[in-house]
Amino acid sequence: MDEQRTHVISALVLHKPGVLQRVAGLFTRRGFNIENITVGTSEQENMARMTIISKGDEKVLEQIIKQLNKLIDVVKVRDLDPENTVKRELCLIKIHATSEKKRSEVIQYANIFRGRIIDVSPETLTVEITGSPGKIEALIDLLRVFGIKQIARTGPTAISRGTLD
Amino acid sequence: MKGSEAIIKSLKDQGVDIVFGYPGGVLLPLYDVLYDSDLKHILVRHEQCAAHAADGYARASGKVGVCIGTSGPGATNLVTGIATAHMDSSPILAIAGQVGTALIGRDAFQEVDTLGLTMPITKHNFQAMQADEIPGMIKSAFYIASTGRQGPVAIDLPKDVQEQEFEYKADFQIDLPGYKPTRKGHPGQIKKASNLILKSKKPVILAGGGVILSESSDELLELSKLIKAPVTTTLMGKGSFPEDDPLSLGMLGMHGRKVANLVVDECDCLIVIGCRFSDRTTGKVDEFAPNAKIIHIDVDPAEIGKNVDIDIPIVGDAKIVLTSLIKTIGKLKEGNPGSTKEWADYISDFKINCIPRLSFDDVPLKPQQVIKEIRDSIDYDAIVTTDVGQNQMWMAHYFTSKIPRTFLSSGGLGTMGFGFPAAMGAKVALPENDVVAVCGDGGFLMVCQDLATIREYDIPVVVCVLNNRYLGMVAQWQKLFYDERMSHTHLGEVPDFVKLAEAFGVQGERVEKPGEMKETLQSALKSGEPTLIDVIIDPDEILPMVPPGCGITEIVGEYKVEREVPGEIPYRAPHKEKEGE
Fold first, then answer.
1. CA proximity to B315, closest of B293, B294, B295, B299
2. Which pLDDT score, from 0 to 100, does residue B576 have?
3. Do B60 and B199 share a domain, yes or no?
4. Number of C-alpha atoms within 13 angstroms, CB side, residue B480?
5. How many structural domains is chain A composed of?
6. Which residues of B touch A66 (CB under 8 A)?
7. By mean pLDDT, which of B109-113, B363-367, B405-409, B558-562 is the weakest?
8. Where in the sequence is the domain holding A56, given as residue range(s)?
C-alpha cells in the first residue's frame, strides 16, 4: 500500500453554473476523499480557481487529476508541490468576552498572531486571522478558554512559489 | 430565428437526418417546428427506447445518434439509455425538454433536475438558458460526443428558450478551452512498446471497444500478423478481429473462451488496445495476466492504471498509435525476426481442444444450436444486437463475428431491454443490412411496447426471443452459488410472445426443434417484415463461467467441446508451477 498523503490540487475551471457540482460530484462518485475545497475568481476572465485538499496515495492522486482533466469545464489541473507552495486560510472567530480583562487578553493574542479585531459588541469580540491552517489552529486553541461562540473558516487556498506554474 | 428552429437547423447542419423521440408539454415548440421539417422523426413508445435506438444507430453507423424526450419523466426515462451509452462510450446526443426558465426550481409540473441527473452519466451536459446559445451548444455537443473517447452528451432545453427569438449568426465559434483530446501517441512510448513486443516470446493482444470506435480493425489485424500474436477481445471488442482467424481466441473474461483465459494467463506480453479492464474482463485483478508486461493503448488517459497496473502506457487514438507501432516494429524487426512462431503453433494446438460444441439435437433447444442456426442464416455484415444476461453471453461466446459494428451489446451497464430498441436504431441507420436482435424473454418484455414502432415505421428487424421462462443469468448464479434457491427468477408462463407480436401487427413465429430456427429466420428476413421469433430453449443450460472474485483461469460449469475425445490441453500455468517450487 502506498503512502497516504495530503495533496493540494489547484484547478483552473470555467466560471459557469454547475462547475462546482461537476467537481464535487466526481469526488463523491469515484470515492475520492475531499477535505476541503475553495473556489474564487482567477486572473483570467470567465475562469475560477479551485483549491482542493485531498488525502490519498499516489495512485489515487493520479486518478483524481486524470478524472478532473476529463471534465470539459476544467481547463488545467496541478498537484502543487508541498515544498514550493504557499497555503493560506482566512478564519473569523467570535469570542464571548464581557470583562475588560478578558477582552484585552483576546486582543493581545490576536496581535501576536497578526490577527485583527473586526467587530466588537458588549458581549463579543470577533477576530480575523489569516495564515497557514496550523497557525489558525494554534490561535483557536488559545482562544478556546474564553468561550468561542462561532468559527467561520474559508479553508486553505494555495499558490505555487516564484515562477512555478 | 426561434430557439426551436435553431435546434432543428443545428442538428441538420451536423448531418442529422433522423431522430428518435417522444413529445411532451414542454417540447411543443420543438415538435411544432418538426411538423414542417424534413428532419425525420421516429416516434418510439417509451423514451428509454429512443435513447437505446439512438445508441444502436451510433454503434452501427459510427455517427452520433440523437434522441429526444420531454421534461420530468421523459428525461428520467432517457436516463437508462444515456447511462448505457456512457458506459460503452457510444456517441449520442440526448435532448430533454425542461420547464420554462421562470419555473425552474419551483417543483413545477413535470420538472426534474435533468442537468444534475445526467451529469455523472454523460461526457458533458448543457442547459440552454438563452436561445442564442443553442447553435454553439449543439455544435459543441457533437464535437464532444464524437471525438476523443466518445460518449453521450445531454442538452436540457427549457420551453421558453425554444420559443425565444434571436438573430442567428452563421459564423459562430465554439470555445472549449478545457477539451483537447490526445490523438497521437508519444513516440518514445511507442518505441519502448515495440522493443518489448519484439523481445517477448508469448505476446497476446487484447482488443476492446476502442478498436471499433477508432475504426482500427485493419491495423489490429496487421499488428497481429506482424508479430504473430493471438487476439482476444472484450465483449465490446467483439467484431474488431475476425473470429474465424487462426489467431483469434474469442472473448476473454468471466464468460470468456477457455483458450482466451488460459492464454492470457500464460502470456509474457499483453498488448491492450482501447479497453478499460472491466471486472468482467479481468476477473480477480491481482491474478490477471500474472506473467505479462502490459502495454495499454487508450485514448482516455484516466483509463491507464485505473484498474490494472500498466508497464507501458500509450495515450492516443488507437488507429494512429497502431499505425506508428506497426511502422516502428517493422523497422526494428529487420535483422530481428522475433521468435513467436512457436507460440503461434502452440496456440493453434491449444485452440483445437477448446472449440465449443455447437450442434445439439436436443428438444427443448440448446442455445448453442440456436446460435449456430442464426449464424448460418445471416451474412457476416448482418448486425446482431443482444440483450443482457445468458442470451448475451451465449452470443458473445458461441457466435462468430468478423466485422466491426456488427455485434452490438450493452457491455458496461448491462441494460436489459437494450437489444431490441438498439436493433431498431441499427436498422434505421443501415437499412440495407439484415438486423437481428437476440434477446431473453425477461429483457425483451421490458421494451416490448416498441413493437408498435417497428410496425408503424416498417422497420424490418427480427427479434429472436430466447425463451426459457427464466431470468436466466440470475437463475444460473442461484444454481451455482446460492444452493439452487431460485428466488424470483422464474417468470411464469405468460406472455405468449407470438400472440404479443401479432397484437402489434408484427409477424410472430415459434421455434422449438433443431433446424426450425434457420428456416424461420431466413424466411423472416426474406419477407422484409418486422418479425418476432419465440424460441423455446432449455432452461437448464448453463454457461461455463469464472465465479465472481476469482482469477480467470478458475472456470466452472461443464465445458462442452467440439471434439468427442478431447486431447490434453497443453496448458502450462507457469505461475502456478513457480508457486510449487
1. B299
2. 45
3. no
4. 19
5. 2
6. 301-302, 304
7. B558-562
8. 5-80
